[in-house]
Write a structure and sequence with these properties.
Elements lengths: L15 H12 L3 H4 L2 H7 E8 L5 E3 H7 L14 E11 L2 E10 L2 E11 L5 E11 L8
Parallel strand pairs: 1-6
Antiparallel strand pairs: 1-2, 3-4, 4-5, 5-6
Length: 140
């Protein structure tokens, strides 16, 4: 079964788990979520790890604490523009997303793994960002 839209004919719908993961990923870009520890924490898996575009490794606790101060978190910061989402169901309850972002004049290709927890909710397990030269970037 085709699990993404990249190679699927337009008549085939996107897998509902991919749709849910994209919605949740986009919510992590929302300032109201980034400013709320409980809302952000509910989207991150307790074992969450991120490797940022800077190369820094973030844990769950570090990310929840830092989100309000990062781009897209404060009212006067530059919003995050995201696009070119693609997703694949790797196994039941595990979705891999890729997409591109722009924050000011910085572009990144991003990769996320979402997994369902015991309560059936998708939570972000792993995230990685790789900087892109401006000439190769195409978000939204």
């Amino acid at each position: 079964m085709i699990q993404n839209n990249r190679h699927a004919p337009k008549a085939l719908p996107q897998h509902p788990d991919v749709t849910e993961a994209v919605i949740r990923e986009r919510s992590l870009h929302d300032p109201s979520v980034r400013l709320s520890g409980p809302l952000a924490e509910a989207l991150l898996d307790p074992e969450f790890i991120e490797v940022g575009a800077s190369g820094r490794r973030w844990t769950h606790a570090e990310m929840v604490a830092a989100l309000p101060t990062l781009h897209g978190g404060t009212g006067n910061s530059t919003p995050i523009t995201a696009g070119r989402f693609e997703g694949t169901v790797l196994a039941p309850g595990i979705v891999h997303l890729t997409y591109e972002t722009r924050i000011e004049d910085r572009y990144a290709r991003r990769s996320s793994i979402w997994r369902r927890d015991a309560a059936g909710e998708f939570r972000l397990y792993y995230h990685q960002a790789t900087p892109l030269p401006e000439a190769t970037a195409h978000p939204a």
